[in-house]
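Table S2 (continued). Query chain:
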Amino acid sequence: MDNNNTQPQPQIQNLTDGMHIVVDALKRNGVEVVYGICGIPVTDLARHLQEVGIRYIGFRHEQSAGNAAAITGYLTKKPGICLTVSAPGFLNGLTALANATTNGFPMIQISGSSSRAIIDLQQGDYEEMDQMNIAKPLVKASYRINRPEDIATGVARAIHAAVSGRPGGVYLDLTTALLASVMDKDTADKTLYTVEDPAPASIPSDASVDKAMQMLKQAKNPLIIIGKGAAYAQADDTIKQFIEKTGIPFLPMSMAKGLLPDDHPQCAAAARSYALENADVVMLLGARLNWLLSHGKGKHWNPSVKFVQLDIDPQEIDSNRHIEAPVVGDIVSSMGLMVKSLDKYDIKPDPAWLSGIDADKKKNFAKMEIKLNDNTSPMNFFNALKAVRDVLENYKDIYLVNGGANTLDDTRNVINMYMPRHRLDCGTWGVMGIGMGFSIGAAITTGKSVVAIEGDSAFGFSGMEIETICRFKLPVTVVVFNNGGIYNGWHNNLGGGSDPSPTTLMADARYDKLIEAFGGTAYNATTPDELSKALSAGIDSKKPTLINCVIDPKDGTESGHISNLNPKTIIKD
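Corresponding output:
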């Protein structure tokens, strides 16, 4: 036999698939954590994320997973990633994605989807839905990847869209065919790259900065309103330097609390109404004149007030009121230029303005102390929050998540924050149910302890995620303010039937028993002393803890501080 005539053996090709290319693209771009729920068609995608060292945090509901991704984006300035299945899973996550867009949090929702050929002809595929086009009106950008060679480009476009300009939510659609597609691995590797400078600086004009500084110089009663956009920017030292050098009082919006400590002598939070009614020039620092500020109109505002606005989005200018001095650029660049120009402008608020704010603060502090020291049984919102406040004064670096109606409003007014980006709440939309997702996202992202103060209704939206908290052994202490209702639990059925009223929940519910089922620590607190001891123990343990805080069902106002938004009829009960 002639060995010289042996036929050459075919080489085995090194192949990969779309699922692995997606994982490699995310890994290449620094993704460390993905939140989600796996299932058809992304189950193996979640497994391969873990295979390459990306942490996968599996949830019980996609909306909570999306909320965790959103708050991760807020805390890191990098897009938080949420992974969902198709159709219903996609829709569940979409609420969180839309909320992220409204709040300016960078987030990418990645969802598997069914066959395009069948969807486009509406032939009834498994979980058939045109997810990309459904997402478009609700997000900053929406993309679909159809070919494996385009995966790196799709991931890059999503990252750029999520973090550039005003951050927001981005939807990325991965079809089943894409995930199963096969490609030569060497060729696939050559398509991968790392995104460069996805959020470039946006530098305002010198003329706009000069005009803003001139207005502040001429003002007698200037006020700075700090929004969560300023907190997101992480220009903490520059903002602090500008405020302290100018001596201008500041009013922090809810998620901007702690950018400067709430006990800072220039903080006007306790004199909010007085400050808004009397300020002659207001500088909006990463804050929008939306409903949270009464759109800059009406009885809450000095009718002759003028505005300076620092915002990265030029379309936000003049959205509700004329802005005399718009400074369009990113907060880091804008504040840097304003601090540099301080030597040219002698900004000095009128001493009478400062003394007026201080007098109003003292008056309101005294009123608040009366509420906090009211000894009731059962507890009310304020004496319960006094117990919480006194404990948290010993944990000033705690991350505080807050959700509800009265629970949200009263906690915001009672609990001081001392560090930036440590108060996490419902934000611009005022949505319920962010609590457990935000708590998990904050704990995973920072590795720090989290306290979630939740109304019983708000907790119900995402309460099953306490299993997730226990499964991942997170240092989260949940305090459920249980007054047995939405707003409160005392209303009757207007029809006289045996069914509870629309706003009534179970006042005798033992939410603490839920966490026991998953191995967590449970407390039932009926007095301020019991609440204090349970909260301290929960934080110190660094283990999953839930405290059922029993509140009088008759305590709590309809819709909290925004009852004017809830139309009323004559209530018969």
